[in-house]
Write a structure and sequence with these properties.
The structure is a homodimer of 597-residue chains. Chain A has 597 residues and is of the alpha+beta class. Chain A is built from 17 helices and 11 strands. Chain A is globular and about 80 Å long. The model of chain A has no long low-confidence stretch (mean pLDDT 97).
Chain lengths: 597, 597
């Protein structure tokens, strides 16, 4: 049976020892109640729900999947009841505004909830997960009326949300989308078209489903500048805001897919469904970016979730499974073999997962905290933090899912042939994880966003500012004995990151295809350097705490050791990435040769 | 729908232009009939069978899987009929000795058959695939009587074979195995025990199943030196050699697994089943190595098969799918977007697959040819070739499956979200491929075999001899203009390979755990250098042929271009691997710290 214990101690370390987040919140007007105690209470309660209620449903969700019957979708046994329990516990309301029933907690405190429920059962977590994106989108772009009707219900958890972008012929390239929105006499729009890959598009867990849909007005310009955004509910709200008349939309079928079977991936047919414009006409894609950014952070957490699941389960197996003797003599002389955790290669696979899990937790919590600070900031400071978010979002989304998939596979590898068998949950973890590099923008799309839009198009401004933060950290800690070796490497890597960026930027002036040819290696390189920054910070804190007292000695020693592992065994991957990304576009695109004959 | 065209031209290139294999065979007494024409005839016929009969059954096999009913196993619809067709075509007899009905073809000619059928339908190909191992094992270690009875039937394809090693508590560590073999008055043995993960252990495709089983005699020493090997048929042969009385063994259940659903992965219960000793008592593991080496080469081919399948299908999709415009201006101005194959990052993913597919084909065909030469050789020359095989087998098995899995995932990535959907066959390809890094010895086990047993335990003898061959090639071609840049890199890499080996060997003298800590990175490094050798050879031949005539100009230009891609984008991965494998055991195993608290 799969196991999972929420990493409470590690979250406390990141939130309060590394970021000093709750100390910061306590000094703000808005979040003075977001104390460390509150954070711990939330995490403890959510851990319980995740471990006890959601984890046992994870394999069931995979085995049963969702079933379609004439447009209705039934979720796996227990999913609906777990959702009722989640609503009962007030979890959907954590983030929304108090004006609509929300608790308005900072993201730094709500993100761990997403991690815990996602690690225990990713497919289930996508039902409330999509609602969060709908909440953010309506909060940022909706009218007061829309907020009164839809936000209230979404925040309560009575209704759930979806994001309807993709059509059969357009995924990455939304400019091609065809779904029509025709203005009606009553100010609403008739939405007609087919959307595919709609996660949680139809199900039996909530009283209504609020579809956030991209569509084109009749006179809209071609391409991405002619797309508008609409709220299209499954049931139209009546005057008292309750779900009432059925709208003209339906789930045509469910996709059969590799994993996340517990989540309904729907083909949604809109047949003149009544929709309501959200945000300005033809600016729908801009409004949808609110949703997409939420979804990207959510997917980054998915990478972390599968890494943590894989790590915990393969660690437990490695401690139990007896096979072969240690090369330096028996470690379990009374058994007929040693536990496989004593083999260096098994430890390598475990430490890789651990370094990626804890590194991911540091990055994503840092991002959440930046987002919270941004919420309070104004003017230049707000713009600066927004830039930082824009820089780190594609890195988190793509890097955390790529190393998440690597981790999921390493965990399975530790099980040997047993990892391939359904019983242990490791193969499901690999299958469920695989979608994370595809949806919400593939790794390639995130990489283009990072290198093209976020860095080169801004002359590297957000990158320079982030590098300044890292260099300031290096300067502040360069005399701290335990951190020194890491600081030196980190400084050199940051310098190299800048040089590489400059070099690719220069090449791109001559041939913009250089960006496309280098971008994925560049993103992966950037991810390793980001993690190196956080791992160095972790060493600085851990070594300080070790000098101060004997409390949690094992925890801090393991932190420092894992940092060493990251610097010596994972960060060096940047060496090859540097070489390959600078090797130029000619070896992939050369008009004189067709390599694919 | 998935597609597949067997790579006939590329095989011809490797077999006759690179290895000059059929020219060599024509000058031997044993294989004078193994001409290029015969090879082409076999390949063309097998291509037809694979493309037309096996490919359409691939998705069916995945969807239906095998079903168990009171010990009987039913294979997916069409599998049995395809096997009958395969037997009818005489395919099972390609390799066996003419004394028992075999055609005795060299492996260089039979290996492509394994590749083609495996690429079209890996799960199906495992039924005849396991028989090949049984044929080799009985050929090498069986008595004349055993050959008359079992070989004849296996070579005819009337019966199939299995390999029964694993037990619930022992996989990599066969020394722990418990299955008992008790001598009986009639000279046979009563075999009792449970074997798991037995591929093709029970099915409905053949008249009998010949299990090759590892078990312990009552007085056997503990560990691997007390294991003997037995033939244990499902039905005992009667005096005329026909399947007759049912033996006391049965399939207890089928495993539910991530992929290869079309193949029956069985729990086999032996309840005092009648078995016949094969080879000497207590030397069973040595005899089983014949089977295991066949299976390892077979699994290396699996890596190639999934790479080729992924490449062909993602190439076709990339040529059709319209999405986004080229960064350097529209390439398909009449369409509303460009085909995604024009994007450098998509080309990078395609070229990676292509370089791994063609590189794998060169390595595996080279191995087959070495094996054939060994069959003809004697004395020192035979030992020398055996060493070469021993060196390259773990590299081929682990490297080709690791890059096979990478390739399968890249192919899926090119499909974006559509890759996650069952319809296209790419997600099945990923799931089917995943087992290849686990069974027949995990990547870790292969790596230990390579670095520990094959290299360090022999003071590097087989490695030195292989390096000499590479250096001789470099010397012979260093003035050939087109090859020059590759030669320089290759020479440097080979030198570095030797230095790294020497350095790890030195460290291992102080602490043998260094081998375990470095081995996987070392194996992957070795794989890249091997492929670099073959890619340089490919350039030498292609550039010669380009100078000679305009025939197949596109083919040769694409070869050279793919070599350039390999050298500039894939071989540099050795840089990071070098750093990490030399980083030492301390960062994974340090008695003072427990990193897993």
């Amino acid at each position: 049976m799969a196991q999972y214990k929420a990493p409470l101690r590690d979250l406390q370390f990141v939130r309060d020892e590394m970021l000093n987040a709750t100390a910061f919140f306590e000094n703000t007007e808005l979040w003075s109640e977001a104390t460390s105690e509150l954070a711990e209470a939330i995490n403890t309660e959510c851990a319980k729900f995740s471990e006890e209620t959601l984890l046992p449903l994870n394999a069931i969700g995979d085995t049963q999947g969702c079933t379609w019957n004439d447009g209705d979708v039934t979720t796996p046994a227990g999913f609906k009841e777990a959702f009722a329990q989640y609503v009962e516990g007030g979890w959907p309301s954590m983030e929304g505004s108090p004006d609509y029933g929300g608790q308005n907690l900072p993201k730094t405190l709500t993100l761990p909830v997403n991690e815990f429920i996602g690690t225990a059962n990713w497919s289930w977590s996508m039902y409330p997960g999509l609602s969060q994106g709908a909440i953010h989108t309506i909060t940022d772009h909706g009218t007061e009326d829309q907020k009164q009707v839809y936000l209230t219900k979404l925040i309560e958890g009575a209704w759930t949300g979806t994001m309807c972008l993709t059509e059969p012929h357009c995924g990455s390239d939304l400019g091609l989308l065809r779904t029509k929105a025709e203005p009606q006499a009553d100010g609403s729009y008739a939405i007609t078209g087919t959307k595919i890959f709609i996660s949680s598009g139809e199900h039996d867990m909530s009283g209504n489903i609020v579809h956030i849909v991209l569509a084109r007005l009749p006179d809209a310009p071609a391409g991405t500048k002619g797309i508008s955004l609409f709220i299209v509910p499954k049931f139209l709200p009546n005057d008292s805001g309750e779900a009432s008349q059925r709208n003209d939309l339906s789930c045509g079928s469910l996709e059969e897919k590799m994993g996340i079977h517990g989540n309904a991936t729907c083909v949604m047919n809109f047949d003149g469904a009544k929709g309501f414009l959200i945000g300005p006409e033809n600016r729908g894609l801009n409004c949808m970016f609110t949703f997409m950014n939420t979804a990207r952070i959510g997917t980054a957490i998915q990478g972390l979730a599968h890494t943590e699941f894989s790590y915990q389960n393969s660690l437990a197996y490695a401690e139990e499974r007896l096979q072969m003797r240690s090369m330096s003599g028996p470690k379990n002389p009374n058994g007929n073999a040693d536990p496989i955790i004593i083999h260096p290669d098994v430890r390598r696979m475990l430490l890789t997962q651990k370094a990626f899990a804890e590194g991911g937790r540091m990055l994503i919590t840092y991002i959440a905290f930046i987002s919270d600070q941004m919420h309070l900031a104004e003017g230049e400071e707000k713009a600066h933090l927004d830039d930082r978010l824009g820089l780190l979002t594609p890195i988190a989304k793509a890097f955390m899912t790529e190393v998440g998939f690597e981790s999921a596979n390493l965990g399975m590898q530790i099980f040997g042939g047993h990892g391939f068998i359904k019983e242990w949950g490791l193969e499901q973890n690999v299958r469920d994880c695989r979608i994370s590099m595809l949806y919400e923008g593939t790794t390639g799309i995130q990489s283009l966003d990072l290198l093209g839009r976020k860095i080169l198009a801004t002359q590297g401004k957000p990158l320079t500012s982030f590098m300044t933060e890292i260099n300031e950290f290096c300067l502040a800690h360069q005399d701290q004995e335990a951190v020194k070796p890491y600081i030196e490497t980190l400084k050199a890597k940051v310098k190299e990151w800048g040089e590489i960026t400059f070099e690719i930027g220069g090449k791109a002036l001559n041939n913009p295809e250089e960006i496309n040819a280098a971008c994925v290696d560049y993103l992966m390189y950037s991810g390793y350097v980001c993690y190196a920054y956080f791992w160095a910070k972790a060493v600085a804190i851990a070594s300080d705490n070790l000098s101060a007292s004997d409390n949690d000695k094992d925890f801090y020693e393991a932190k420092i050791y894992t940092a060493q592992y990251f610097y010596e065994r994972l960060l060096p991957r940047t060496e090859s990435l540097k070489t390959t990304m600078l090797s130029g576009v000619e070896n992939v695109l050369n008009e004189k040769v067709n390599p694919f004959v």
